[in-house]
Design brief:
- The radius of gyration is 20 Å and the shape is globular.
- The strands form six sheets. The chain has a seven-stranded parallel sheet with strand order 4-3-2-5-6-10-16, with helices on both faces. Strands 8-7-9 form a three-stranded antiparallel sheet, with no helix packed on it.
- The chain is an alpha/beta fold.
- 32% of the residues lie in helices and 20% in strands.
């Protein structure tokens, strides 16, 4: 978990894949303000081919799986920030090939190009979904890893997971980066595989990297009106249409909602902090504040004077109950902590 000192004292040539996206745009803006030479590679798939403004950065319109375009742009970089991905939980298994192609193959193309170009610094956008369920304590057995929730419990309105040893309902706590990975949907599986590919690249090239496990990112520009959006985006879309946000389960699911500007700050610090050769450092990137999904829906509704949320009791078998994490390691390694409070952040949405 060693990392060198920040490289802010000089210009760094940085390639940002997916730099025209929700997280990419504020990241690029922050890097440009820091005096760095920034190139963005983006397919504009989520923009229907229309390029957003990226002041101070060069834009290359290409898919992350385009080997020639990626190789050309990586050759001109000192570091790569790999944000490009198909995000969200998907609709059903008909999405599996697109997720694997975009996320797994896309990451492989970027890492191979970095290898041939002798670029030794990669920052990879991972996600808190790699953990599956978060961390839980049992009153009898201490820290335990729950299995998937039972459909009979979910149908009965018992949403918290049970201890695999004594069957008692568990109490959630925060998860740290050394927790076992347990992806529970296709998107999560691709994020875990991306981390594994990054580690293989680092070992074989003596490069170094960071795997930033973003929590629930929200803020201006978040994607809307799509089944692949995060819960904050979906709630905001409902409110914009004058409808009450639909909250699944009992609304008490615990999450960590982190503002996109804070995420951009973490990425920028990881880009200008030199990781140790041959190592990949996983870092949770969250606000450090636990918020329930119901609380978020209520806060969003209040911010726009919209209808109160409607708790439905519905559930999706691929969802996890609670996942919140400690971001203390990011503070230690990068000198980073989130600064935007939820109420202030929601006002920007």
């Amino acid at each position: 978990m060693r990392a060198g000192t920040s490289g802010d004292a000089g210009e760094v040539r940085i390639l940002v894949t997916g730099g025209a996206g929700f997280i990419g745009r504020p990241t690029v803006a922050r890097l440009v303000r820091g005096g760095h030479d920034v190139t963005v590679l983006d397919s504009l798939r989520s923009h229907r081919g229309i390029a957003p403004a990226l002041p101070g950065a060069r834009l290359v319109v290409a898919d992350v799986r385009d080997e020639a375009a990626v190789a050309t742009t990586v050759r001109e970089a000192d570091a790569v920030v790999h944000l490009a991905a198909k995000v969200g939980l998907g609709v059903d298994l008909d999405d599996i090939a697109d997720y694997v192609s975009t996320n797994d193959l896309g990451t492989a193309v970027v890492l191979r190009a970095a290898h041939h170009a002798r670029v030794g610094h990669v920052v990879y956008a991972s996600s808190m979904v790699v953990y599956g369920e978060g961390a839980y304590d049992c009153a009898v057995h201490g820290r335990v890893a729950p299995g998937p929730r039972r459909r009979t419990d979910l149908d009965a309105g018992v949403f918290d997971p049970r201890c695999p040893s004594c069957d008692q309902v568990l109490a959630p706590t925060v998860v740290t980066e050394d927790a076992p990975l347990d992806p529970r949907n296709v998107y999560a599986a691709t994020k875990v595989h991306g981390e594994h590919l990054l580690r293989a690249w680092a070992r074989e090239t003596s490069g170094g990297g960071f795997a930033l496990r973003f929590h629930n990112v929200y803020g201006p520009g978040m994607p809307r009106d799509t089944p692949y959006a995060g819960v904050a985006s979906l709630f905001r879309s409902e409110l914009a249409a004058g409808r009450a946000p639909r909250v699944f389960e009992d609304g008490r699911q615990r999450r960590d909602f982190v503002h996109v500007d804070d995420v951009a700050s973490a990425v920028a610090r990881a880009t200008t902090t030199r990781p140790a050769a041959g190592e990949v450092v996983p870092l949770n990137v969250g606000s450090g504040t636990v918020t329930t999904v119901g609380e978020l829906a209520g806060a969003l509704a209040g911010a726009v004077h919209g209808p109160a949320p409607r708790v439905t009791g519905e559930y999706r078998t691929g969802d996890v109950r609670h996942v919140t994490a400690s971001s203390d390691r990011a503070a230690q390694v990068l000198g980073w902590r989130a600064e935007v409070a939820l109420a202030a952040g929601l006002a920007t949405c």
